[in-house]
Amino acid sequence: MQRIAVLALGLSALVPFPAIAEPVEVVAEIRGAMPTGITVTPGGRVFLNFPQWGDESPFAVAELTGGRLVPFPDTPFNRPGGDDPVTHLLSVQSVVADGAGRLWILDTGAPGFAPPVPEGAKLVAVDLATGDLVRNITFGPEVVLPSTYLNDVRLDFTVGEAGVAYITDSSLSGPGAIIVVDLATGEANRRLSGHASTMPDPNFVPVIDGEPLMVRPPEGPASPWRVASDGIAISPDGETLYYCALSSRRLYAVPTALLRDPDATDAQIAAAVRDLGDKGASDGLAEDGLGRIYAGDYENNALRRWDGRRWTTIAHDPLLDWPDTLSVGPDGYLYVTANQLERQAPFHGGEDKRVQPYRVLRVPIGAGPVHLD
Description:
The chain is mainly beta. It contains 2 helices and 29 strands. It has a single domain, classed as Neuraminidase, CATH 2.120.10.30. 3% of the residues lie in helices and 38% in strands. Strand 11 and strand 12 (164-169) form a beta hairpin. 47% of the residues are buried.
């Protein structure tokens, strides 16, 4: 069991910044494996996930409750190992709770960023009340390429027979894409595969603490770190999907109807993509019920909000050391994991510069989540 310390919620020290300055509250400090994804259920339960990036987490998904991380579900399905990749979680990158009592888990099937294990890349749903597995959709090689890294997901249950999922492919070496999944049949298709909007910006060089963030091996020259489509968000009416590459400062939008249309050509979809301009360098995105989009700014330890016209920095704090995944809770707060991703050994000549604990933080936003149920 990983040990965490739940802190009294209070105001953090705010750094002057030319924008709104909301208080950054510490929800929990986490020791052990590094978390990436976070989701808050309509009932206020908080879930985190832990990819297999070398920290050897004993579980993939856990609930943050009562001062502890409790594996969820507490079954062999949630523990590493096993001969059948379909019946075990291999390396989970994202979790999203829906409004119908289910936790959706996105398994990359790619521990350590290796090529995905056949049938290991999957989207599964677990009943929040019982912990039972209620859906398990695996992806074939025509959707999950050897270079694919499934990153984040948004769900819309108002279309089709059982709804649709939109997943970002944040490849480090191949084409980025939006993967569209029919939740009734499990059929999936790659959209915008290799399009400029889902690919890293070739001119992008992130700068953190005054130093370019690059892959720096113990020996040999440094090289650029290029990550494709990562953050994803959806409008309250389900009609627009927002997304961004991690290695970029741009935000893009595309009509979901075109993504779902089997007759829409790649050229038609590409022509409908809108470049919404510079938002800063972000990992995750989130959306609220008022139609506003949230993004981390990992170069500046900040959180930003887009109201359809302009970006506003809503929080700026040293605690926001690599704001990774964002989730809007039912309590009017934006929750975020801060996991020091940029301090990992591959960026520092093999030296791991992360300093535990990692943190779960939140800021008030005065709005609730989007649930397309």
